[in-house]
Amino acid sequence: MMRIVPYFSAEGLSNVYLIADSEGNGIIVDPANVDGKLLEGIERICSRLVGVLITHRHQSHTAGLGTLMKIYSPVVYAWENSINGFAAETFRDGETKRIGNLSVTAIHVPGHSTDSLVYRIDSVLFTGDTIYSGSIAMTHSFVERALLIRSIEEKIMVLEENTLLYPGHGTLSKIRIEKMLNQDLLQFESEVKAARASEGIFL
């Protein structure tokens, strides 16, 4: 059992998530900003802060890490072994680690950035900038966009439809909702079908 408390950060208009397990172990997802409200939440619902999950290294999701590390001594987890000068324990694609009394699985979803991870805990996904409610992350080329969408389709959309999505920006969603309404995924699917049709390949 876990409790999830969202916090809004003006740093990149980002979401920060505080997770507490049944024993009071705390985990922060993407410390975009660490202010008095977040610190109060940590002290109120956690007996200790044991981990920080970084979905990717962009400043709008990591700017508060230095402040957090001055106050607490959590283990930082990420795709790479260093975030903002702090050592991190790396997650590989599909790897599961025990953090507190929660099993956390990392899913590598490159495209927006090479180090983008989605973290799965029970029936919840912390998606960072990979997928939001109704859209996907910004990319810099068609190739990166195709890579991101293929990764989302093959690794995220295949999960149980009522899986909750806690994104790095915006509101919560579910896989079922994104299958029906995510305009970026639907548009890309139409583009692929049109391209195949023009080559005489019909599905």
Overview of this structure, please?
- The chain is an alpha/beta fold.
- The protein is 29% helix and 33% strand.
- The chain is built from six helices and 16 strands.
- Strands 1-2-3-4-5-8 form a six-stranded mixed sheet, covered by helices on one side.
- The longest helix is centred in the last third of the chain and has 16 residues, at 183-198.
Task: Summarize it.
This protein has 203 residues and is α/β, with parallel strands linked by helices. The chain has helices at residues 36-45, 59-62, 65-71, 142-155, 175-181, 183-198, and strands spanning 2-9, 14-21, 25-29, 48-53, 75-78, 82-83, 86-87, 89-90, 96-99, 102-108, 117-121, 124-128, 131-132, 135-136, 164-167, 173-174.
Broad CATH class: Alpha Beta
Secondary-structure arrangement, i.e. CATH architecture: 4-Layer Sandwich
Described by the principal axes of the CA atoms, the overall outline is elongated
Please state the average pLDDT score. 92
Task: Give the total of domains.
Answer: 1
Query: What is the helix/strand order?
Result: EEEHEHHEEEEEEEEEEHEEHH
Classify the secondary structure makeup into a structural class.
alpha/beta
